[in-house]
Design goal:
Pfam families: OpuAC (PF04069). The structure is a single chain. The protein has about 300 residues and is of the alpha/beta class. The chain has 13 helices and nine strands. The protein folds into two domains: about 100 residues, Glycine betaine-binding periplasmic protein, domain 2 (D-Maltodextrin-Binding Protein, domain 2, 3-Layer(aba) Sandwich), CATH 3.40.190.100; about 150 residues, Dipeptide-binding Protein, domain 3 (Roll). The radius of gyration is 28 Å and the shape is globular.
């Protein structure tokens, strides 16, 4: 009995020692794991998205800013996938539905911020600039030719939540002109502020050019309907950003409402300086940058280095 008891005692001590050693090894393993998990975050993020940023049209100002960000942050391994705004949002939806990582070029106002939980990556280098504004740009001589339209366009301004109402209706399947009219019907007081004291005309023709951004679609359709109510015949032509500014500069179009300044369309504004009139700001505190879903554990562009 004594011998047996002694052997069992030794076995218990041995088992305890083995258990403590195992715990000690687990702690070391956990320590190594923790160190690795908080180590090279950029490599982890880069690998999950194949070191790619999902962008939009190659000529867009936000793409120029993204190229600048890649240089500013030394993101030599990274590339930007060009496409369209629709392709970008389709890629976002696909990744978001599966909670997969994705990095996109983003801007607000845009309906995606109402549909999904997203966040801008911090930009300490200022590659994307600060807050921007939406400017109404017209051809030279518009005030002389269409003083009533010129006055209304100078009065035109609204808030991001106003624009979002129109954008969300459109993305949910409504026709742009119907969504625009719905907003007008619900905001008669604001529309009256734009048109107060302005006489109606008799069929004068005015031409708008706009890019395919949802924000531009929303604003152009709303303003077009307001001008039609004033008696104008409005033509709307969708083009790329460069041709849009060129059409205003050479007088082949009358108005664009999507002048993102000073960064996004800064190159075009500088190129055509003196060949257009900037008649007012329709929205302030708009923004561009790199955007990710909030479920991604990344907060700054610096984390991509």
């Amino acid at each position: 009995m004594k011998l047996t008891k002694k052997v069992l005692g030794l076995s218990a001590v041995a088992l305890l020692a083995v258990g403590l050693a195992a715990c000690g090894n687990d702690k070391e393993d956990n320590k190594d794991t923790d160190e690795n998990s908080t180590g090279d975050k950029s490599e982890a993020v880069g690998e999950t998205v194949d070191y790619k940023i999902t962008g939009i049209d190659p000529g867009a100002g936000i793409m120029e800013a993204t190229d600048r960000a890649i240089e500013d942050y030394d993101l030599d391994e990274w590339s930007v996938v060009t496409g369209s705004g629709a392709a970008m949002t389709a890629a976002l939806k696909k990744a978001y539905d599966k909670e997969e990582p994705i990095i996109i070029t983003g801007w607000s106002p845009h309906w995606k911020f109402a549909k999904y939980d997203l966040k801008y990556l911090e930009d300490p280098e200022g590659s994307y600039g600060g807050s921007e504004e939406l400017h109404t740009i017209t051809r030279l001589g518009l005030e002389d030719d269409f003083p009533e339209a010129h006055a209304m366009l100078q009065n035109f301004n609204w808030l991001e939540e106003d624009m979002a109402e129109v954008m969300i209706e459109v993305i949910d399947g409504e026709k742009p002109e119907v969504a625009a009219q719905n907003w007008i019907d619900k905001n008669e007081e604001k529309v009256t502020e734009w048109t107060d004291g302005i006489d109606k005309v008799d069929g004068d023709e005015i031409k708008f050019v706009y890019v395919s951004w949802d924000s531009a679609v929303a604003s152009t359709n709303v303003v077009a309907l307001v001008l039609e109510d004033l008696g104008y015949e409005v033509e709307m032509l969708q083009v790329e950003a460069g041709p849009m500014w060129a059409a205003i500069a050479d007088g082949s179009a009358d108005v664009l409402l999507a002048g993102w300044l000073p960064i996004t369309h800064g190159t075009y504004a500088e190129k055509f300086e003196g060949k257009y009139e900037d008649i007012g700001t329709s929205m302030v505190d708009v923004k561009i940058g790199l955007v990710v879903p909030t479920y991604m554990d990344i907060d700054s562009i610096e984390d991509l280095k």
